[in-house]
Amino acid sequence: MTGTPGTPWSERSVIVTGGTRGIGRGIAELFARQGSQVVLTGRDARTAEKVADDLARSTGGRVSGLALDLRDPEAIEAMAAETEERHGHVDVLCANAGIFPEKPLREMTSGDIDEVLAVNLRGTMLAVRACLPTMERTGYGRVVLTSSITGPTTGFPGWSHYGASKAGQLGFLRSAAVELAPHRITVNAVLPGNIRTEGLEAMGEGYLRQMTSAIPLGRLGETSDVAHAVLFLASDQAAYITGQTITVDGGQTLPESGNSPTTGP
Prior knowledge:
Layout: E1 13-16, H1 22-33, E2 37-42, H2 45-59, E3 62-67, H3 73-87, E4 92-95, H4 110-138, E5 141-146, H5 160-180, E6 185-192, H6 198-201, H7 205-213, H8 223-233, E7 245-248
Parallel strand pairs: 1-2, 1-4, 2-3, 4-5, 5-6, 6-7
């Protein structure tokens, strides 16, 4: 049966939501280098297709793009159905897509809160649900969520809605892991710290220096650092791991002193 333990990466089907940039692109690239069939999603179809073409050329892998608005439940169902039509099955879901608009709590509207929760939390839950039929049919599945240290572990001014959504993902993860275990579907998460992406670069040099100084390993993370943790959780080597998290932050959340880091997404 395709997707069962021992199946090579070249026969595995992988979805990466939010795969057009940043951490998601890094995840999609690493799976493509393993030879997997990868579908990456983004809000804009042309961008998703272009990034997929670029990754296919640079890795020699099989990568295709698909438009997806995680606020739209029907679009999420269509994503899973289209991937199954292309590949015959879905083995791995990397629920990575997320947004982090900055706004102080006193200025935050109900619409601001709803949008972040709709994409980051509800969108994650619906993406997992959409992939269940094919995973249950094959009796195999790996779900890896991209959460964050912000919310589950730390906080940062202006991201209370973001932090709530990322902490909520972990509450979902634990119950989903128990519920899906009888179907041999594992559900785990990575919690990135400050990873060098377009979004982080936009925070400015001052922010980057502040964050780097708070990291014991002395550098910002790279998208590949997160991607390798995701690859492990999606692998046969992690078959007995479910409902767990891996923090990928260079030790940023470890210090207890007054120099303890405060982090953003």
